[in-house]
Write a structure and sequence with these properties.
Elements: H1 2-23, E1 27-32, E2 35-41, H2 46-57, E3 66-70, E4 74-77, E5 99-100, E6 115-118, E7 131-132, E8 136-139, H3 146-159, H4 168-176, E9 189-195, H5 197-204, E10 220-227
Antiparallel strand pairs: 1-2, 1-10, 2-9, 3-4, 4-8, 5-7, 6-8, 6-9
Amino acid sequence: MKQFRILVISILTLLPIAVGAQEHRAEVLLETTQGDIRIALYNETPKHRDNFLSLVRTHFYDSLLFHRVIDEFMIQAGDPTSKHAEAGKRLGRGELDYTIEPEFCLPLHFHRRGVVAAAREPDRINPERRSGACQFYIVWGRPLIDSQLNRVQERLDTLTHGTVQLTPEMRQVYKTVGGTPHLDGQYTVFGEVVEGLDVVDTIQRMEVDKYYRPYTDVRILRAVILKEP
């Protein structure tokens, strides 16, 4: 009985640490024309976290569009040229003049539904897989079955030279929640939606043109920091 009490006390002692780690994450609110999206930023990706917060502080994201929306895949924003873009203009090429080294945190943070990740240039011109400075996407992705995940693993083996393995825990999330596992180990995941996933769902279902830009503009009215790290 004494040993049991010691074990319980030990577990209870550790709980505030785990909860505290969650509470001390920075949080950003995206107020959009479709509703609010609240994002928590990961402390395990400090370069991406601090860069995102810096852009929010300077009101960089205010009035930018979700310019690329693919049903059952993701929604993307952060192109600075989207602020005053006329209807029908192809967007997605605007960026800032620096990049960020990747901060892959597998298997802790992966491309499950609701995470926030940094967009980047493709491998052929960006073999180091450095993130772009300002464009980001929020993952949707449909749930997958084992045979699909097996094919994804084969693809990852080729693209990452066998360095990325889908753990049983990751596979279970991809089967029950959904996501985009084919991007794991190639794009940095640096946050997650903690409120407003229904807004993400609404946006990812919108009708789009041939460039995947919504016919009805979805604008970030403003981005504000709710919590500092």
